[in-house]
Amino acid sequence: DYVKEGMTVLDVGCxxxxxxxxxxxxxxxxxxxxxxxxxQGMLDxxxxxxxxxxxENIIELHKCEENRIGISTxxxxxxxxxxxxxxxxxxxxxKEMYSILKPDGTFFIIEPAFHVSKKAFExxxxxxxxxxxxxxxRPGMIxxxxxxxxx
Length: 151
What we know:
Layout lengths: L7 E5 L5 H10 L4 E6 L2 H11 L8 E5 L11 E7 L8 H11 E12 L5 H14 L2 E4 L6 E7 L1
Parallel strand pairs: 1-2, 1-4, 2-3, 4-5
Antiparallel strand pairs: 5-7, 6-7
């Protein structure tokens, strides 16, 4: 529902690229997926996985800096799967996500319910609200806490 052909999507904290690969199929040749991670080893795994495939030119690998993502491309959608709780400065992170989203862009945060308390998740959502995001939906997801935000 959230990913459409031709979109530019940031998969932040992409790990070995499980979602990056799936999203690349959805955005197609006219779209782009920026797979961003702090660990070069994770990006290397994605590179090996996509080399020589039809999605090789759709996925752009990006190594994050220690305290910022550091991309200038404007994106339609940011996916933050099981990673926001690991960010040391959530306000700074959320502001950066807000700044790189296109107008009316979507920010999808999914956190592990077994690791992130309801209270901690609500604090993250409240921080996002304070920055200017608008809550659109709270999708029910097994073992997870999730929110869809709009710029």
